[in-house]
C-alpha cells in the first residue's frame, strides 16, 4: 500500500471526507508534488526530520498559487484547499503542523459584538431561536454542535434546577469530547421553548420530550433536529428583521470569547468550553480541575449575561414580590410585603417573619378546573417564564396566547 492509499483510507475511515473530497485531495496533493518537485516519500521524510522546513515549503507553495507562479493565479479559497490537502496527508502519517490552515479570505475588521446586539437578535427570534442564540451565547458552541444537542445533554441538571447546567458533548467534527455550560439566560429560554413543545401548537401536536429528543427541533410535524440549513436561514431572517447588518452565527461565539477574555478567564478554559482541540497536557489539566473551572464560569457569568447584575439577596426579594403579583395578591398587601423585605435582612428572618410573609402570600384567586383544584389563565410568551418558575405548567397554546395552570394551594413559600 502506498503512502497516498494509506492516507485516503484513513480519511474514509474517519468519515470526514466524501468521495469528491478525496478526489480533490489527490488533485491538490499531486499539484503540490509537481510544483515542489518532490515525491510523497521525500516530503514525508523532510517533515519528520524538520517540520519547520516542511511548513516553509508548503507556505511557499500557497503563496505561489495565489500569486500565479504555477501557470495561473488561484483564488485564495482554492489555495486553502490545496494547503488543507497537504496538511491532511501529513497528519495521516503522524506529522502535525504547528501553523493553522490560512483563512480563505482576507478577514475584515468587524465591529465589537455587544450585549445589545445579542439582545436585539433574541428580540426578533422565534422561541426556538431565542433558546438557540442564548445557548450559543452562554456556551460558545458552534452551530453544528448546537444542532446535535439532545434533551439528554441538559435533562438532569435542568430538571434539578441546577445553575449552571453542565453539558458533556462529543464534537462530531473532531471526535473530541468536552464539557461546556449554560447559565440562567439560556436556561430561562429553554424552559419556555420546551414548555411550548410539550403543549403543542395549532399545527404541531404536543410532544413528549425524552432524553433522545433533539434539544432544538425542526418546525415540522415530524420530530427531527434543527438542520444547519434551517439554522442559517433563520439567522439570516433575524438579521434582516432586526436590521443587524452582516450579523452571523459566528458573531455569537465571538461575543462569548471576547466577553470571557475581558473578564480575565484564561484562554485554555475558553478554548475547552468552545470544543476546540487542545494539546493533551492542557486538556488533561482542565479535566482534572473541572470543579474549579465550573466555579470560574459562575463567577465570570456576569460578563456574558444579558441581565443586570443582582445580588442573591435582591433576587430572593424580587422572587417573593413576583410570586405575590402572580398570585393576584391585592396591591396593599404587596406594598406591606415590600416594606417587610426592605427593612429586614432575609438571612436574619425569624419564624414569625416567615409566617407574616406566608400570610401575605395566601392565595386569593378563584379556583377553576373540573376538580376545583387548579387556577388557570392565559399569559403571553414574555410572561411565561415567571409562571414556570413558580410551578405553573403549560396546558396549550391558542392564537399566540399560552394557557397555564397550577394548584391553588401555596406550598413552600420559605
Structure notes:
The chain has 19 helices and 5 strands. The protein has a 3-stranded antiparallel beta sheet with strand order 3-5-4. It has a two-stranded antiparallel sheet with strand order 1-2. The longest helix is centred in the first third of the chain and has 18 residues, at 19-36. By secondary structure, it is mainly alpha-helical. Helices cover 54% and strands 8% of the residues. The protein has helices at 3-14, 19-36, 40-49, 51-67, 76-92, 115-123, 127-139, 143-147, 155-159, 184-199, 228-242, 249-262, 267-273, 280-288, 290-300, 312-326, 331-343, 351-360, 381-389; strands at residues 165-171, 176-182, 374-379, 393-398, 401-407. Residues 364-372 and 409-414 have low confidence and may be disordered. It folds into 3 domains: 3-92, no CATH class; 115-303, Orthogonal Bundle (hpI Integrase, Chain A), CATH 1.10.443.10; 312-407, no CATH class.
Helix content: 40-55%
Radius of gyration (Å): 27 Å
| CATH C-level of the largest domain | Mainly Alpha
CATH superfamily of the largest domain: Intergrase catalytic core
Low-confidence stretches: 364-372, 409-414
Estimate what percentage of residues fall within beta strands: 5-15%
Label this structure with key terms.
414 residues; hpI Integrase, Chain A; three-stranded antiparallel β-sheet; 5 strands; 54% helix; elongated; disordered C terminus
